[in-house]
Fold this sequence. Notes:
Elements: H1 3-24, E1 31-34, E2 45-48, E3 52-56, E4 65-75, E5 78-87, E6 105-118, E7 128-145, E8 151-170, E9 175-197, E10 203-213, E11 222-233
Antiparallel strand pairs: 1-2, 3-4, 3-11, 4-5, 5-6, 6-7, 7-8, 8-9, 9-10, 9-11
Amino acid sequence: MTFARLIMTCFFVAITFATAQAQTDKIKRRTITLIEHNSEPEEASTETVVNAAVKINPLMILIGDFPVSLEYSPWDWFTMELGVGITFDRIIGPSTKSVSGIEPESKYGNSFIGNVKFFPGEDAFYDGTYYSLQFTRRVYNHEYIFPNQQALTTQTVEQSVSFTYGFQFFVSDHFFIDMYLGIGLGATSGTSAEETTDPAGEPLYYTYEYSNERENLGFEGGILVGGIKVGYWF
């Protein structure tokens, strides 16, 4: 089983488990009941609440990513988040190597995030803590233009699955801050450029594929993840 299949399997197993659990629970109504003192039940009014939010993660700009995601909560204890973004030249982290003194030009790429969150206090719409399983995929593109006018495009694909612990709190009626930290497994693959020579001794450039485990926790594939998201409930 490839790494991509493994992380996608873990992600969808979590969604399936949450859905199955929900079938045995009483689904709570998404309404706020406003009852005046000493009023009769039939005089009560309700206000429907839409349980969704748009979120951004400004810190991701440091690693060359700007994702925008939509989070939806079908139940008080559970939310699902899906997002897409654009990638560009990163400020921190590994850089794309130069070839024969030629630095690559960054081209726009794309990113994807999928996240399922579990709220033990059933407080998805309030201040509180949560646990989550998160999958991310980022594609970075670069282009080399060599002196012989040969152009090559390389690509770096970073994928990870992580388990995180987070805390969110509202700063107004609609805006909230979501902070999280966790550990996971990550892998990097893609294409890289190299120089060789043709039979006449002239420089020739080519690309090759590679794949390796990401590591920043001291063991193979281990990564540390974290971030601060800004969200708006509507």
